[in-house]
Amino acid sequence: MILLAAILFVTNERAGSLMAIDTATDRIVKTITLGSRTRGLVLSPDNKKLYVAVSHFRDKPAKVPDHIAVLDSKSFAVIGQLPSGTDPEGIAISPDGRRVYISNEDAGTASIVNTSTRKTIAALVVGTEPEGVGASRDGKWVYVSGETSNTISVIDAKKDRVVNNIFVDARPRSAVFSRDSKRAYVGCEVGGAIDAIDTKTQRVVARLRLRPVDHPDGIVESSDGKTIYAVTGRGNSVAIIDAATMRARKFIAVGERPWWLTLSPDGRTLYTANGLSNDISVIDVASERVIRTIKAGDGPWGIVVRP
């Protein structure tokens, strides 16, 4: 068994692989080919398991059916599979780790799967081309973004059903809840905006329009909840946003076409997965600058850190 400190996990979409990187040395310690296309990933609440969305490109033969790969986050071994719909993309997990929520892009559904029995509990119709999935920390809500319907489908996590659809700006790519579960932030790629949703009223209460060059995708909240960090896609940067005022105060240049980003457990370091430059930008939160770059595989997409 490989035992290291903090490990950065990155999915390489075009390579169909998962990469494990030692954050202390920036050394790639493991690369695993899981399919022909790998995108969303999430750690279990206890950080022991890693769930990865595995699908395939239409022009490539499918070597394995679409599924969610389950890995041991310390040994990096594949220990099982969960079912999904066609073309799984985004994935989130319940606060207790008992359920995963999956956006199935081609199927236009969101799957709810029991992580113990590995059985599908429900497959819900959501917005068109579902992508981003977020689960609130209070266990009440799951939000799924519909890219071409420009909606957030609201799933009641207690009743396992869609209870509302919220219209947002054009082409929502992500749905990320604040740590207190009172807000959700949506990266709207074509609209070039970040929408903030009040989870009590289920309404958009603020909209930040970024620069014309920016097309936001992944979002993460700072450890203290005061700052939002959003990758800007074709803007090749990370926007630093004041959560209270919903104003961008700075942009940090990173690699080409950042898709998603993650924050280290201590809140001191940001990592962006740059899909066109095939690398990872490492940002020091205190100085707000890129301090190094790590080479990744072909098409880095999803990214998380295991303590």
Describe this structure in words.
With 307 residues, the chain is mostly beta strands. The protein is built from no helices and 28 strands. It has strands at residues 7-12, 17-22, 27-33, 37-43, 49-55, 67-72, 78-82, 88-93, 99-104, 109-114, 120-125, 130-135, 141-146, 151-156, 161-167, 176-177, 183-188, 193-198, 203-209, 219-221, 227-231, 237-242, 247-253, 258-263, 269-274, 279-284, 289-295, 300-306. A hairpin with a 4-residue loop joins strand 26 and strand 27 (289-295). The mean pLDDT is 96.
Q: Key features?
A:
single chain; 307 residues; four-stranded antiparallel sheet; mainly beta
Task: Describe how the helices and strands are arranged.
Layout: E1 7-12, E2 17-22, E3 27-33, E4 37-43, E5 49-55, E6 67-72, E7 78-82, E8 88-93, E9 99-104, E10 109-114, E11 120-125, E12 130-135, E13 141-146, E14 151-156, E15 161-167, E16 176-177, E17 183-188, E18 193-198, E19 203-209, E20 219-221, E21 227-231, E22 237-242, E23 247-253, E24 258-263, E25 269-274, E26 279-284, E27 289-295, E28 300-306
Antiparallel strand pairs: 1-2, 1-28, 2-3, 4-5, 5-6, 6-7, 8-9, 9-10, 10-11, 12-13, 13-14, 14-15, 16-17, 17-18, 18-19, 20-21, 21-22, 22-23, 24-25, 25-26, 26-27
